[in-house]
Amino acid sequence: HLADQGYKVIAPDLHGYGRWADLPVEARHCKECGAEVCYQKSRRDLIDLIDEVKAANPGLPLYMIGESLGADMVLYSAGMRPKIIDGIVLSSPAIKRRFNLVPRVMRDVCLIAHNPFRQVDLIPYMKKFASEDQRIIDEAVNDRLVRKKLTTWELFKTIHTMRPSLSYADKVPAN
Prior knowledge:
single chain, mainly alpha, 175 residues, globular, two-stranded parallel ribbon
């Protein structure tokens, strides 16, 4: 929609998410760490992209939009490049400081204890926590580019990555 209105829009995927799923299996893994999901590489790539976009378009304001884990990436980027990024929009940022202990979590913890290499189905969590708007939940569940399973290790990496999100917000200027 924004591109149709004449805005320049760049929509990168995180390593292991979105269009990465379309790559051949051998090309899905980060060349640096070997993981399929690599948040550190995603962050470095995003900062490099921000620097390149601003250098190529110094007169244009730069706004970033992020949803869920993407909102974490936006907060991180705005904290790292506060003088370059002109504004941010965060949709459903995953920054809650509480553990949502629901029966499904206990079930999955037991299954993980039995098989630590299993893929965890994220759809029940998306349905419970992603939004109060059923249309948004349905779109996410049916979008082939939305990742719906993560390994136990990828889940731990995700939680570890999102944990300092609020500290990044402290680095973003109020203006």
